[in-house]
Automatic annotation (TrEMBL):
This is CAP domain-containing protein. InterPro entries: CAP_dom, CAP_sf. Pfam families: CAP. Keywords: Signal. Residues 1-33 form the signal peptide.
Amino acid sequence: MPNLPPHQLTPLRVVVLLCALLLLGLSPNSISATTPDPATLTQQVIELTNAERSTLGLPPLKGQVNLQDAAMWITADNAAHNTLSHIDSLGRRITQRYPDFGYTNYNWIGENLTMGASTAEGALTSWINSPGHYETMLKADFCEMGAGYAYNANSAYKHYWAQSFGCRFGVHPVVINREAATTSTTTVALYIYGTGWAQEVRLSNDGVNWSAWEPYQPERNWTLAPGSGTRTVYVELRNGSTVRSAQDSIDLRDAPYRVFLPLVQR
């Protein structure tokens, strides 16, 4: 089935990709019957999306829980009904579905769907190879995203995927290491949204002890608190007397030990 072109709702500045069936050349018999872990696969989709955007100099997207819930819903709904549609079984397009999942006050939203790919890499490839979907993935106006995956062994193509995109008025996310789940070093790369609004920025590892206010810039390195476990970076942006806040977290894992053995020659 050919791809349908993206549809734009100009009054709401909403980008909507209409239903497109991307089969990747796979037959139902070629797809693994093993049920993968949705949390792992959706995190991979987010990281792969940001890696692709990075190759073109675009900022990374922040994982956002309401968009994640909306993406998981549409994939489960499509899997349950053996279809691929941006209109769910309750008759909702993303302009209604996203607010129903709590994503409101947006200025841009969009969505990509595909089915049949058994891996996150395969799903990304299908979107990259479809001009309309690729354009949506690379849209510079987006700053947040969610990803969805569902598996139904009794459906024709078994694997269902979604990317949910958006950006909200007055929300300036911070993204650690292109939204990677883990890091083995305390030095991380931050992308802080706020270009065109923010004048100053300050940061903290605990939300209590802050760095000094400094001129805003979108990209900078930061040092996490030492140790291991979840580490959160808190950011405050200031324009005059107005202050807006953001935060992001990453799992800091101990770097692997290296054992050096002396070389003994006999």
